């Protein structure tokens, strides 16, 4: 009896993937994305950042990324470096921060791939890098 319970537990653990689920940014961030007043995007390869404060540009950015699915990686080992980091602010207070492959200390891949979307958006912004 104990062996069958252990086997069932092992199968459930494998199927559930340690509790990580596929989610989108609105599912990770429990606040209202319409109330975001500032977005800071940091380029991990240069360390430069661009700060978005125009409500129309913020909405455009959020619209581009909000439906992207973050799918948990099977291997959750620590990694070195990152491409972009995105920080959302509400009334000058940090509301949420995530990376393109790491959210809440867990690693993900995305569908569609978020990197070219954020990379193209960042490079097209007519904002001075800081």
Task: Please tell me about this protein's structure.
With 130 residues, this protein is of the alpha+beta class. It has a single domain (20-124), classed as Dna Ligase, domain 1. Helices cover 32% and strands 28% of the residues. It contains four helices and seven strands, in the order ααββαβββββα. The chain has helices at residues 2-16, 25-28, 55-65, 114-124, and strands at 38-43, 49-52, 69-72, 84-90, 93-99, 102-103, 106-111. The protein has a four-stranded antiparallel sheet with strand order 2-1-4-5. Strands 3-7-6 form a three-stranded antiparallel sheet, with no helix packed on it. Strand 4 and strand 5 (93-99) form a beta hairpin. It is globular, with a radius of gyration of 18 Å. Mean pLDDT is 89; it is low at 9-17.
In DSSP terms (H or I, runs of 4 or more residues), the helix count works out at 4
Strand order of the largest sheet: 2-1-4-5
What's the β-strand tally? 7
Residue-averaged pLDDT:
89
Named CATH architecture? 2-Layer Sandwich
Distance between the termini: 63 Å
Q: Strand portion, in percent?
A: 25-35%
